[in-house]
């Protein structure tokens, strides 16, 4: 009746058994009268194994070496290519016609940013032609190709970017995102035992939660889904339960003040002191850092008595290596000095109801104060409040905030 | 000084250590002033592992299923793609610029015969452009792409086809084929203990030997090398010994009556009886079988008293499945009957000197007779003699023929 794009993550295609189970879902959706496109990730630990191989080659001889990003992408795109072929075989073995495509083969064109490429276009005609012949179309997630024919990967959660981009260009009725959890939770259930599955959440809330550490779906994928108004259904590949629907905002959803809480561990604060206080200096600094495609957050700028400025911001620990060279170059050019504070975390609450309800921030700060957690910095948006705290208190912070807003109770 | 194409087989790139050793050879050749192109196979048992994965998926649920060849190629091309990326990293880590290309990325265009595709053209400009920038260019062996963008594999020994095709289009001074043996031997040294490494062999002899079971280099690759007169140097990747040069015929080489002996085990003879004896019937039969791209050999046709013909030929046991359907269809259309005799072998001798020396066949037959080995069928060409024998006597046959022509003694 409609067009469904299904995506199966690495744990959902981890072995032959699981691949067949995923194949059965696709065939079933097809038997129910839908046209079906399937996006798959690399099997289980394949990507880790490939990275390990690259490490072995690059550590060889005792001189650690950072591999060229182009070659890293050339290596990593093979992971998804293995899965698409196996998935096509599984669906064919179940008696349904299927055809697999790499990102390049469906003309999923990206920019040149190896390891963090952005999707620019998709040749939907190649997919429609196969769907019209009754085939299930399988597409490799996480990858694309530049106009010059270089393979690129889409960065963390890239398969979800593929899912939503396909949903958008094919004007799908739904994007089904199959994972190993039942949906989106009010907080990470590995930390907060009484976390509750959310039935419905808005694109905006999901974007904030993703950006703040909820790992199921990436901000970029949700942003894209919002732009093209494609509903996403996050489901468990191991059962048939309804999962979490990510949808456009409705009137009723405004009554929920806080939808969920999120935690980002392992942040580093970069502080740059003795920056000449002249117009455009912040743009210069963050322009350099943006060139490394690293997300920076919690930016603070203070102007000192001596007319120099101190600028600080946080980055994820894993991104530090990428910006280190830019920071060093900046400080030497500006005569400034950089210092780094590790072991920070960020606890956040998100909800579109905040726009119309008061006292939300106070309740959060009080909960943290009651638990003797010191807040080092606060940032807010219309629908979220974030507090930078010590990494050692991160789990406790998430739990007390979750409790303060009674997120375990359904609305 | 020149342009060298080097090829490293699966055992020569089996781990990080070996990849670095291969990388060092490429860098060394470059430091000596050459332009270097490197062709690599999949690492060690990667291809076997991928086939095993496909088997698991296709055997799942107890109903064995033959995977679509397109999807099998989609799967298998990933093996070489992993190696090219790792090789590029290893060379870069050694301080030399390198860039890797898949078959598709250098426009290695093939026909549509998945699993046994033929090379049609290579976009050499893309390679020259990189060589001119001083880079070592790494190319994935065994694979190509159709004009429609489908991935294909080149069949058994496909990486050697890539090596020689590159040697030809780039007009290389030499194609270095690195393996785990010191060169081409007068017979398989695992069977004939006193087999001797050959210093020089002609394209024609090598083609015959390859077709007859010598596994180092495939007929097709040598044929191509001959056509474009590209010398091939078969060498051991683990040492610096001179290997075997495969070159155009010279006057002096004619003095060698027999250059080598070869053995093919595990042949099956297909016999088709009661075939109507009318013109064109053989063409019909072998046309059908050729469509399956299987090499048939030792063809015999006898016309019986009742005006029906009996046609027999041998195929390798592994190819039987591919032609079985064609044979069944033929027999039912022609009212003929097929039978199959397994456990056959073929022992052969090859040498361009045969053209000008007499008594060669007699000496071979006598050696087999002395060892009480029954010859079931004989085929000859200008430079080879082959005898079909029982598989059980195959190793003995190879040894006695090798002894009869004193192949262990250098000429």
Description:
The structure is a homodimer of 411-residue chains. The radius of gyration of chain A is 23 Å and the shape is globular. With 411 residues, the first copy, chain A, is an alpha/beta fold. The mean pLDDT of chain A is 92. Chain A starts with a strand and ends in a 7-residue tail after the last helix. The first copy, chain A, has helices spanning 16-31, 46-59, 69-93, 124-132, 158-169, 203-211, 219-227, 281-291, 320-334, 360-370, 394-404, and strands at 3-8, 35-40, 98-101, 109-110, 119-121, 136-140, 143-145, 151-153, 174-179, 200-202, 232-236, 244-247, 260-276, 297-303, 308-316, 337-350, 377-381, 384-390. Chain A has two domains: 3-180, Carbamate kinase (3-Layer(aba) Sandwich), CATH 3.40.1160; 261-404, VC0802-like (2-Layer Sandwich), CATH 3.30.2130. The longest helix of chain A is centred in the first third of the chain and has 25 residues, at 69-93. Chain A contains eleven helices and 18 strands. At the A-B interface, helix 1, helix 2 and helix 3 of A face helix 1, helix 2 and helix 3 of B.
């Amino acid at each position: 009746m409609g067009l469904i794009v299904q995506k199966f993550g690495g744990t959902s295609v981890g072995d032959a058994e699981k691949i067949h189970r995923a194949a059965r879902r696709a065939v079933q959706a097809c038997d129910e009268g839908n046209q079906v496109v399937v996006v798959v990730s690399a099997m289980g630990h394949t990507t880790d194994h490939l990275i390990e191989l690259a490490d072995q080659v690059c550590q060889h001889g005792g001189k650690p070496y950072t591999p060229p990003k182009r070659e890293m992408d050339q290596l990593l795109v093979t992971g998804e290519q293995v899965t698409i072929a196996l998935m096509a075989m599984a669906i064919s073995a179940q008696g349904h016609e299927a055809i697999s495509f790499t990102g390049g083969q469906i003309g999923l064109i990206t920019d040149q940013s190896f390891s963090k490429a952005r999707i620019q276009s998709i040749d939907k005609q190649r997919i429609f032609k196969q769907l019209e012949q009754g085939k299930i179309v399988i597409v490799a997630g996480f990858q694309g190709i530049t106009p010059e024919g270089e393979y690129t990967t889409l960065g963390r959660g890239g398969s979800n970017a593929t899912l939503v981009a396909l949903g958008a260009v094919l004007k799908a009725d739904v994007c089904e995102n199959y994972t190993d959890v039942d949906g989106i939770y009010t907080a990470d259930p590995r930390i907060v035992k009484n976390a509750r599955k959310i039935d419905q959440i808005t694109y905006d809330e999901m974007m904030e939660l993703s950006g703040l550490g909820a790992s199921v779906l990436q901000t970029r994928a949700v942003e894209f889904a919002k732009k093209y108004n494609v509903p996403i259904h996050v489901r468990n590949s191991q059962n048939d339960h309804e999962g979490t629907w990510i949808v456009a905002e409705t009137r009723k959803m405004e009554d929920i003040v806080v939808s969920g809480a999120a935690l980002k561990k392992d942040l580093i604060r970069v502080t740059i002191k003795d920056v000449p206080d002249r117009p455009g200096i912040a743009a210069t600094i963050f322009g350099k850092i943006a060139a490394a495609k690293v997300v920076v957050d919690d930016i603070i700028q203070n102007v000192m008595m001596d007319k120099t400025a101190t600028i600080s911001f946080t980055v994820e620990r894993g991104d530090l290596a990428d910006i280190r060279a830019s920071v060093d170059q900046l400080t030497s050019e500006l005569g400034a000095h950089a210092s780094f504070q590790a072991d920070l975390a960020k606890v956040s609450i998100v909800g579109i109801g905040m726009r119309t309800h008061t006292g939300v921030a106070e309740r959060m700060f009080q909960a943290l104060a009651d638990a003797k957690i010191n807040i080092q910095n606060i940032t807010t948006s219309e629908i979220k409040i974030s507090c930078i705290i010590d990494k050692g208190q991160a789990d406790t912070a998430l739990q007390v905030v979750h409790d303060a807003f009674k997120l375990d109770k359904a609305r």
